[in-house]
Amino acid sequence: MHRQFTEREWHSIKSMAGDWAQLDMFYRHWALKESFIKAIGVGLGFSLQRVEFEVSPITMEVGKVYTETRMWLDEEPENWVFEEMLLDDKHHVAVALGDTNTNREQTSKNVMRSVTPFTIITYKDLMASAVPLTEEDSSYWDSFSSKQELPQRQSAKPSSKS
After folding, report:
1. How far is Cα 20 from Cα 93, in angstroms, rounded to an integer?
2. Residue 120: per-residue pLDDT
3. Is the pTM of this model over 0.70?
4. Which among 73, 129, 135, 152 has most CB atoms closer than 10 A?
5. 151 falls within a domain
């Protein structure tokens, strides 16, 4: 992970008191980096060392949306806005809204939206209005359910037949 975080970010992570607090800060930084590369659409080919975050505030309350974190790209400060929220004591979410200079009108609309926290939905909620694309074919389920839970280990030696 040292390839993915800058020295300043590692200092921020390591400066937290205790292993759980350090892990929490690690996940927060990771969520921010992931939100940025998804927003610019370049994927993991982008060197994450090029982007650096200074998180603010250091600690977050569950359910509250924060937009104070700042970002540097190639050691230059950027005007990107990030919405961050702690969903519960173990799950961070970060959304990159964009550069306020190049997309000021859209970003302003998004920042005004930030007073509404993220909504956690269950699988049941998500599937409540789902409509099948094709008719059910029981042979698919029969084939799936007949598979072993774990694959069997293959023998390294070829079997010898007499």
Report:
1. 17
2. 75
3. no
4. 73
5. no
